[in-house]
User: What shape does this take?
Amino acid sequence: MDSNKLRELQAPLKSQYKDSPESAIITLSSEGKIGDGITCKVDTGKAMVEAGLHPATGGDGLAACSGDMLLDALVACAGVTLNAVATAIGVSLGEKTHVTAEGDLDFRGTLGVSKEAPVGFKEIRLTFHLDTDAEQDQIDSLIKLTERYCVVFQTLNVKPELVTANKVIG
Assistant: This one.
């Protein structure tokens, strides 16, 4: 896709959202069904994913770890955003371009072994491996804009309000 085609696709949406800001608010959702053992089956919209305990918490490694899935979501969003931004600003990316994310977890927190150990990632490192001949200022702009417009990156970077609820159904 070229930048003109991308602009053509996005122009009516941008116009609609400017004219009717409320139409830009869309609620995304995910649902998981408790599975056998200690698992939860999540319908991603494309495939059913069974999430379970990481081996560091007693899992057998056969089910997807939700921490891995979080990093997968970050990589997917950053990769799509990188590609869209590159297209929009005219930066050519070669086929070797890829995105990686790695994060550090202290499983003592998750298992309740230590109250001082945090539950969750202490640090996440997102790396853009760029196959490009773009100038450094273009690369800097590409990364800055990718960070700015990547939904998952911004959600992790700027903590949203998180509300929990429960509904007894049985």
Notes: The chain is about 40% helix and 20% strand. Strands lie at 32-34, 39-43, 48-52, 64-65, 98-105, 121-129.
